[in-house]
Specification:
Keywords: Signal. The chain is α/β, with parallel strands linked by helices. The protein is about 45% helix and about 20% strand.
Length: about 325
């Protein structure tokens, strides 16, 4: 078939049009829904990196809190949003790895309904106990639990949350029981521990350090592979004789069918924002570890994390109707 010059020019223009359109992305503010309350680690680190992403993107990045159902409410809202790259979810281990395992009926599919953008933070946990427990190390804490099986209470930010599961993994490894007291977020949970209404809690290391700074709680261990720089004096659970690790991660995702060009541009902006000194300082203060990757790498990371949590969830028989 003979192709004239005009046809060739039109064909080339048609192929170039999508690239030109996405070169101008974003053309308005980008909205990131944080499906947890204001002031939590996720909210603090997202706001710091959102501000730094505005430069590379050429548009403001606006953070909106929409908490509820261990992150499921806000996550569902993004799953139903227009896939144009302007509405994103701050996902984590709960929204995209654990919720699908514990909820019998979840209003979104963590794979089918989302387009991964990039991981950007990992968050180790610390075990905090109230002063009323009168213990100074993990061995003393476990002894207390043995003396009063099922009567020591622990807080979390929800059934099936990483805080809940990390404590259950510790209890299972030690062959002990405790009473679970779920709250709507980390802040009300640790407030209850400080006030003596609940005995202990696994929470993010940065939040734990802030609560322990003036002696309101005692930190017994961190659930990381190695000691946390912000808490160099606090041993890991493994050092204390319990082979358990737990924590959380945070990353950005958009709705399914979001163009790859948009996901890649957002991931590049996040990687650039992560290099900003102000962002790195916030992460250090929160004991969060900066860790960015590509959309494809993030998709693999989420799948691997879901597989990692599957066995503990089944063993603990945690199901939510």
């Amino acid at each position: 078939m003979k192709i004239n010059r005009r046809t060739a020019i039109l064909a080339a223009a048609a192929l170039a049009a999508p690239r030109l359109a996405w070169a101008a992305f974003p053309d308005r503010p980008v909205r990131v829904i944080v499906p947890w309350p204001p002031g939590a680690l996720a909210d603090v680190v997202m706001r710091s990196i959102a501000q730094a992403m505005a430069g590379p993107l050429g548009q403001p990045v606006v953070v909106e809190n929409r908490p509820g159902a261990t992150g499921a409410l806000g996550t569902e809202a993004v799953a139903r949003a227009a896939p144009d790259g302007h509405t994103l979810i701050l996902g984590n281990a709960e929204t995209h790895a654990i919720n699908p395992l514990v909820y019998r009926r979840l209003a979104y599919d963590p794979v089918r309904d989302f387009s991964p953008v990039s991981l950007f933070a990992r968050a180790p946990f610390a075990l905090a106990v109230g002063q009323n427990m009168g213990v100074t190390d993990l061995a003393g804490f476990l002894s207390k639990l043995r003396e009063a099986p099922g009567r020591v209470s622990y807080a979390s930010w929800g059934v099936g949350s990483t805080s809940h599961l990390t404590m259950e993994l510790l209890l299972k490894a030690a062959g002990l029981e405790a009473l679970h007291a779920p709250f709507t977020g980390q802040a009300p949970g640790i407030t209850a521990v400080i006030g003596g209404q609940v005995d202990c809690m696994f929470l993010t290391a940065g939040g734990a350090e802030a609560a322990a700074r003036d002696g309101r709680v005692k930190l017994l261990a961190v659930s990381a592979a190695e000691r946390v720089p912000l808490l160099p004096q606090v041993p890991t659970l493994r050092e204390a004789g319990v082979a358990v690790e737990g924590g959380n991660w945070f990353g950005l995702l958009g709705p399914a069918r979001m163009p790859a060009e948009a996901a890649e541009k957002l991931a590049q902006a996040m990687a650039e924002a992560a290099r900003a000194p102000a962002v790195q300082e916030v992460f250090r203060a929160q004991a969060a570890v900066l860790s960015t990757n590509t959309p494809a790498e993030f998709a693999r990371f989420i799948a691997e994390d879901r597989a990692r949590w599957e066995a503990p969830v089944k063993a603990l028989d945690i199901r939510i109707d």
